Amino acid sequence: MSDNAVSTGIMSTASIVTTIVVIAAAFTVAAAIGASINNSGQNFANQINTDFEVLAIGNTEAGNSTIYGYVKNLGDASVGSFSEMDVFLDGDYYYLDSADTSLFRWNATILNDNGNNIWDPLETIIVRMYFPDGESINSGSHQIVIAISGISEIYQFSI
Which residues cross the membrane (predicted)? Predict the structure, then answer.
């Protein structure tokens, strides 16, 4: 009878350990799924709160090595860093504040900043786009794409 009690005890302990391992694995998977859903929700909220518009493009004459655009933040969210922004002109990627003059590069300045150096709602920035050394904008149709938080604005102009 004692052999039967020992076997039952071993089987019960093994069942409890197995149950704990299964619960721990299920909890880990559930936590990962919950974190993924939370991240997706945050990204979606950022997209909902982000809205901007390219108002105008300047310095658009053939041969210019710099052009600029005015962009207004029409959303409910502030843009804390310009590194959150991507700029393309005619399919070429422009690098933020690059010192390498052989690259397409850009920088931005907040024109009507309230003093916090953050691009807040209803503030306008000027985005300056620089061509690589020796290059300039050509005559014809051009397209600027600015993207922030998964939202993009396309502005087309001709020279």
Answer: 12-33
